């Protein structure tokens, strides 16, 4: 893919500790890059605290977490509370997705939007980017 345009919106993401599936998070990165985002996956298996540091350092416009494996549901709840709280403090939406998260598993989790597939990630990113580009005070589309 070509390099993102200067000023392209940034997006970061990855998977949490215990989830070693790399393909889904890199697919999100590629899908967003195809949409013109400056997207980068941190890869798989990171402690939430590491991702929080990345959020604070990079301040992306969008952050995603892919969940393909949940070794400990309570740890996932705690990690997502930390990430979601950080995202809210910084004004960054947290997009959550992954095959390991059915409706029952999501009930306790903190996130901004759940994306069942790549199409929904791209749709959310398009809508979010368009909303950010409107002039202050301009009515929604």
Extended strand count: 5
**Shape from CA axes?**
globular
Coarse structural class: alpha/beta
Within the largest sheet, what's the order of strands? 2-1-3-4-5
Low-confidence stretches: none
Number of helices: 5
What share of residues is helical?
40-55%
Q: Work out the strand percent.
A: 5-15%
Mean pLDDT: 92
Largest sheet: 5 strands, parallel
Radius of gyration: 15 Å
Please give the alpha-carbon distance between the first and last residues.
Answer: 30 Å
Elements, N to C (H/E): EHEHEHEHEH
Provide an overview of this structure:
The chain has 141 residues and is an alpha/beta fold. The chain has five helices and five strands, in the order βαβαβαβαβα. The chain has helices at residues 23-34, 48-58, 73-90, 103-106, 118-133, and strands at 10-14, 38-41, 62-66, 94-97, 113-115. The protein has a five-stranded parallel beta sheet with strand order 2-1-3-4-5, with helices on both faces. It starts with 9 loop residues before the first strand and ends in an 8-residue tail after the last helix. The model has no long low-confidence stretch (mean pLDDT 92).
Short description:
With 141 residues, the chain is of the alpha/beta class. 43% of the residues lie in helices and 15% in strands. It has a five-stranded parallel sheet, with helices on both faces.
């Amino acid at each position: 893919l070509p390099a993102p345009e200067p000023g392209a919106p940034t997006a970061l993401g990855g998977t949490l500790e215990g989830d070693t599936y790399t393909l889904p998070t890199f697919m999100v990165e590629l899908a967003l890059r195809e949409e013109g985002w400056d997207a980068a996956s941190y890869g798989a298996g990171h402690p939430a605290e590491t991702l929080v540091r990345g959020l604070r350092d990079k301040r992306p416009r969008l952050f995603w977490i892919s969940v393909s494996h949940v070794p400990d549901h309570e740890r996932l709840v705690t990690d997502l509370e930390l990430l979601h709280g950080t995202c809210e403090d910084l004004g960054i939406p947290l997009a959550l997705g992954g095959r390991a998260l059915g409706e029952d598993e999501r009930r306790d989790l903190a996130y901004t939007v759940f994306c069942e597939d790549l199409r929904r990630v791209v749709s959310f990113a398009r809508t979010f980017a368009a909303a950010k580009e409107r002039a202050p005070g301009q009515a929604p589309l």
